[in-house]
Amino acid sequence: MTKFGDGRSLCEKETSGTTRRMNSSQLAKKPLLSCVVLLALAAPLSAKPLFKAGTALPPPADTLEAAAAPTPISLDLMKQITKRLSADDFEGRAPSTATEPKVLDYIVSQFKAAGLQPGNKGQWLQDVPTVEIEGKNQSPLTITGSKTPLSFSFGDQWVGASYRVTPKTKLKDSPLVFVGYGVVAPELGWNDYAGVDMKGKTAVILVNDPDYATDGEQGLFKGRRMTYYGRWTYKFEEAARQGAAGAIIVHDTFPAAYGWNVVNSSWTGAQYYVQTKNDAMDQTQVNAWVQKDVAEKILAAAGKDLATLTRAAQTKGFKPVPLNLKANVSFDNAIRKSTSHNVVGILPGKNRPDEYVLYSAHWDHLGRCTPDKTGDDICNGAVDNADGVAALTALAKANVQAGPAARSQVFLAVTLEESGLLGSEYYAQKPIYPLAKTVGGVNMDALAPGGRVRDYAMTGGDKSDLTDMFRTALKTRSLVEASENDPEKGGYYRSDHFSMAKRGVPMFAIDRGIDLVVGGKAVGQAANDDYTTNRYHQPSDEYSESWDWSGIQQDVELYYSLGRELADGSTWPNWRAGDEFRAVRDKSCAGEGGC
Fold this sequence. Notes:
- By secondary structure, this protein is an alpha/beta fold.
- It has helices at 10-15, 61-66, 75-85, 100-114, 232-241, 253-256, 260-267, 292-301, 306-313, 382-402, 422-429, 466-476, 497-501, 520-534, 550-568, 582-590, and strands at 51-52, 117-118, 125-136, 141-144, 150-152, 158-161, 168-178, 184-185, 190-191, 202-206, 246-250, 271-274, 286-290, 321-347, 352-362, 367-368, 378-379, 407-414, 438-444, 455-458, 480-481, 483-484, 507-508, 510-512.
- Helix 5 (232-241) links the parallel strand 10 (202-206) and strand 11 (246-250).
């Protein structure tokens, strides 16, 4: 049994028919179909293609093949590393297990062979201390203050956990306050906590953001395209910043984009977090979810109507509503601490070595998992994400062979992505190289075997100046810019690049489309469906000598070009005006030694 990454992803939960548990941290990870063939970062609960077709007519295949000059990306090296990292003797690369040292030794050996230098003060590894907390003996959630007390059972009606590293959690007589969508966005003039002191109180919060039901991308919160303010992770973070004792998100399937079964399965097992010096005592005591009908009953007991309050919360100027009710809940916590590791290499820059471009890919996978019909219980993770680490190493070797760029280039193989982006989150919390001096970067997650394509898209849409670089690169290669499908599902916020992005560093999250040069969209969609159903987070995600690597090579050539342009450039890309991360970047650039 693995110590980390042993929960199911939403994709596995909904499509594979197996029975492994998923923990809540995986709701925060990359989009839940991120490993689908010919797609990365796809939307949860959907087997639809990620991208809509571009409007431009695709050029002939021979034009596409010759559009860009070849780059020194070693296909043989990528094959070798992918095959080795997904071998059975690595047992699925679960962090903090007996096989982790062997995995790390192999990655370090490949970084050395590529010509990188150790990236952490002469060392190759960065410790990532984590804590596993599993709630037990959960009481009902009781609500008092109305004529008749309300009681709701754990699992069926409410689920939750505590980030705090404490053996006992007890929320007692905490006043409930309805805070709409729980958003504080100064750049938009929006504050759902305006005028209320949340100390000792529990926030009742709607899922997604105020514009979620709006067609297109109009409105303060970009309409159907989810902003970070719509992510459940943000809502718990903001409640803690406001000093709340507890936070309760109201689940609703349409704006959440997944059913209660997903929330239930993800919040009833162990949760994984990065260790903090204060044992997360600055967080809320309880983070919880309730079913929509539970919220309706609670609000009715307060003389309020959920639908009416929801409409009010979608209007600028909304003010929080005290409910004159109190929440009570308690449970025990089983706690286990452990340490995994990121692998860090660097190619120092020749002109501005104190400015950095970051390349990242996660090395971990699920370890041993639900056996298939043959009894195979090793989730090898060849696509997710052995080939991402292979691409990372091939990029390192190509840049070494090309000679140092003007800026330094950092190559980061992170751990614990499958447990909630914890390796990248720890690096972002404790960066080896200052984020204020990190220009931007490229993240690679689950590069899909398959043929070359005519289209690519930027996950998250036009969020930063990197989009301009991306569009120029596509034009140079006679490729089409595709639109992200299902933007309301917040794909940009679910892979390792996001740990850097939310701290102000613009990051490329580029997705290959499904319009194959040979076969077109129908073949691309079929490959997508096959991986989603038959391989993703299953023992069958294995290396095959029959893989078509031409699409992966196309990806990595694009990453090389964009990364090298950043590394040899002198500009500092920023987020677009009004983006939720613009203020963070502006602040870091304005600080001493920044940008």
